[in-house]
């Protein structure tokens, strides 16, 4: 008799996969899958918001080293490529949910981004990108004078 160690609250993998497929069918998958993977590898959730004078992007990249991250600006898109490498230790897993492999995200940017003023930092497994807006394309306040 085989015994599988699993918390009492755990949902069997096949049921979880079916639920993910059902949600993807009705609500549309994010980058092609509900299991954390994309057509090219691992899915990395991202947030994008606007602050005064810049756009901000955060991408979750836990377990990814700085040297395994490449960010490039191609025309009006920010291309992020990273890789979460498999640990080199010899492990005999009882259970494995973590995914390893290539991560690719392509984020279309507005024309207001200044390609010469982009900053990136990796801290606590989160990649933060700050994309300054071009000064000539930002709204300009016009003072109204009384006559």
Description:
The protein is mainly β and 147 residues long. It has 2 domains: 31 residues, no CATH class; 84 residues, Immunoglobulin-like, CATH 2.60.40.790. The protein has 1 helix and 9 strands, in the order αβββββββββ. The strands form 3 sheets. A 4-stranded antiparallel β-sheet has the order 3-4-9-8, with no helix packed on it. Strands 5-6-7 form a 3-stranded antiparallel β-sheet, with no helix packed on it. Strands 1-2 form a two-stranded antiparallel ribbon. Strand 8 and strand 9 form a beta hairpin. The protein is elongated, with a radius of gyration of 21 Å. The protein starts with 12 loop residues before the first helix and ends in a 14-residue tail after the last strand. The relative contact order is 0.18. The N terminus is likely disordered.
Short description:
The chain is mainly beta and 147 residues long. It has 1 helix and 9 strands, in the order αβββββββββ.
How are helices and strands ordered from N to C?
Answer: HEEEEEEEEE
- Main-sheet strand order equals 3-4-9-8
What's the CATH class label of the largest domain?
Mainly Beta
Number of discrete helical segments: 1
Q: Write down the overall geometry.
A: elongated
Number of domains: 2
Helix fraction by DSSP (H/I, runs of at least 4): 10-25%
Q: Which class of secondary structure composition applies to the elements?
A: mainly beta
- CATH domain topology of the largest domain: Immunoglobulin-like
CATH architecture field of the largest domain: Sandwich
Mean pLDDT: 78
Radius of gyration, in Å, reads 21 Å
N-to-C span: 93 Å
Which stretches are low in confidence, meaning pLDDT under 50 for 5 or more residues running?
1-8, 28-40
Largest sheet: 4 strands, antiparallel
